[in-house]
Amino acid sequence: MSGSEPGGRTSEARSRLLGTASRLFYTEGIHSVGIDRIVAEAQVTRATLYRHFPGKEDLVLAYLSAADQAIRGRVAEAEASGRPAADVIRAVSAFIVEDIRSPGFRGCAFLNAVAEYPDPDHPIHQAVLAHRQWFLRTVTDLLTDVWEAAAEDAGRHFVMLRDGAMAAGCLFDPELIGETFLRGVEGILRRGHLSR
């Protein structure tokens, strides 16, 4: 369901439900948060919830879609800056570090979700894979521009560094993790420069 009212506006109740669910899913885990809790904290009725989201799975997919769109928007903004590809990679890396250093950081929403939905055929697992495939392809394309050659290995290396930083960022000193991640990214970029 779109959740839009006449005139194309998103329903306030839908926004409140999605905002509440997103906060709870991210901070506490998807399986540990029930529909009753979401309805109570969003201050809506169950009927309102089901009008916008036929089931909890639809709400989880909307949460992941919103997270995906936010990341795509930040990457698109960096790409639209007209800067060289290496600087776009640096900008993407900077917003990853900004997230790691933000209050309440609890790792990657997508990695957290896929840990709770390990069945590769489940729609939530599939949504996570789609996001990750887009991110890998985007980073690989940018690194191909930096290297002026195919950069599949470098793209995978970047994503693995990012995944490690996201996992470590909620376990250890986020400042140190951010610095380590950025040094690793510079190593990837320098390798591309030296290989030309």
From TrEMBL:
UniProt keyword list: DNA-binding, Transcription, Transcription regulation
InterPro entries per UniProt: Homeodomain-like_sf, HTH_TetR, Tet_transcr_reg_TetR-rel_C_sf
DNA-binding residues (ranges): 34-53
Pfam families in UniProt: TetR_N
Domain annotation HTH tetR-type: ranges: 11-71
An example molecular function term from Gene Ontology annotations: DNA binding
Protein name (record): TetR family transcriptional regulator
Natural source organism: Streptomyces shenzhenensis
Organism classification: Bacteria, Bacillati, Actinomycetota, Actinomycetes, Kitasatosporales
